[in-house]
Design goal:
The chain is an alpha/beta fold. The protein is built from 5 helices and 7 strands. It is about 40% helix and about 20% strand.
Length: about 170
């Protein structure tokens, strides 16, 4: 009986942690669909990006962390289904933002997972904090006029397919 009870308690703790990371909570968002994208700047080893550089582009911003299981599950799909398809499209920009990570953290993670996505560090949550309080992974699609036209929290196949459909429509 004690073993079963301990197992249920451990399961409940793991489930609570997963739910807090991967499910949407209204109070966590600072921006919503229809809003203008907040101004921000990101710097990586390969490039510097600001909202001024993004004008006239369709932008997908993905916020993640290397320790987040749903994030780690989503990233290969992001690479295979979106980045590999649109990386040569001059109207598309992908920003994969490592919340609370340094460039060194992101480089090590990308190498270990064999990912070649455009990673940007956000070690102090300076950019993430303009979009939300918590909960990752998060995706935002910004249209060519700078408006947020799609947002999601967490990862599941159905929602990821919606994301792909939005990008396909914007980039046709």
């Amino acid at each position: 009986m004690k073993i079963v009870l301990k197992g249920l308690v451990a399961f409940a703790i793991v489930l609570a942690g997963y739910v807090s990371i991967s499910w949407y909570t209204d109070g966590d968002d600072f921006v919503k669909v229809g809003d203008k994208v907040p101004t921000f700047e990101l710097q990586s080893v390969s490039s510097d990006i600001s909202t001024a550089n993004l004008e006239g582009k369709v932008v997908l911003i993905n916020f993640f962390a290397t320790w987040c299981p749903p994030c780690v599950k989503e990233l290969p799909h992001l690479q295979n289904d979106i980045w590999n398809k649109y990386k040569d499209n001059k109207d598309f920009v992908l920003l994969v933002v490592g919340r609370e990570h340094s460039q060194a953290d992101l480089d090590k993670f990308a190498s270990s997972k064999e990912l070649n996505l455009p990673f940007y560090p956000d070690p102090e949550r300076a950019v993430f904090g303009k979009f939300a309080k918590q909960s990752i992974p998060r995706n935002y699609v910004i249209d060519k006029k700078g408006n947020i036209i799609y947002s999601s929290v967490g990862y599941n196949e159905k929602e990821f397919n919606k994301l792909k459909a939005v990008l396909k429509e914007q980039l046709k």
